[in-house]
Design a protein that fits this description.
Elements (H helix, E strand, L loop, with lengths): L2 E6 L3 H13 L2 E6 L4 H8 L3 E5 L7 H11 L4 E6 L14 E4 L4 H10 L54
Parallel strand pairs: 1-2, 1-3, 3-4, 4-5
Helix pairs in contact: 2-3
Length: about 170
């Protein structure tokens, strides 16, 4: 069974980017705004909820507190492109994600809240192309990385070695 994530954000563009990243990590993702977030959380029963900090009528940490009262087992992250004073947010927040974020940052944030072991693992080291110099997805130069990497540090694309015909 795949993990489920609920994204609550009034920025459609930011939601779609994060949805794509979470899909690549093996999550089924639903989108909601601040007005239907609690209803969507009750219906979808997500493992993680990522809520934007500043929205039109509420703050994300207040919404997380309400979601946690309904679904206490959900891990809830607050996302923001602005600085957040940790001493000013509700205790129900499990972590903070600063946006825009990379795939590395997202994976690290999920690891910190205990979701790491449940993320679909990318590719084993033996499946990584040792001679790859550019990401086939974003064309970023990867030659500076002197160790094996499983996904592009710039776009998050999984780097798989093509199967050989042996």
């Amino acid at each position: 069974m795949r993990k489920r994530a609920l994204l609550v954000n009034d920025s459609r563009f930011e939601s779609l980017i994060m949805k794509d990243m979470l899909n690549n990590l093996g999550y089924d993702v639903e989108l909601a705004d601040e007005f239907d977030a609690i209803y969507e959380a009750e219906q979808f029963e997500p493992n993680i909820v990522i809520v934007n900090y500043i929205m039109r009528k509420t703050r994300g940490d207040k919404l997380i507190k309400d979601i946690k009262s309904t679904i206490p087992k959900s891990k809830c992250l607050l996302s923001s492109s602005n600085s957040i004073r940790y001493d000013k947010i509700e205790d129900s927040v499990d972590g903070i994600i600063h946006t825009p974020l990379s795939m590395f940052t997202l994976k690290d944030s999920l690891k910190r809240i205990g979701e790491e072991e449940d993320i679909i693992h990318f590719v084993g080291k033996d499946e990584i192309s040792a001679h790859i110099k550019y990401c086939p997805h974003c064309a970023s130069n990867l030659s500076d990385f002197n160790h094996s990497i499983t996904f592009c540090p710039y776009c998050g694309h999984i780097l798989k070695q093509k199967a050989s015909n042996k």
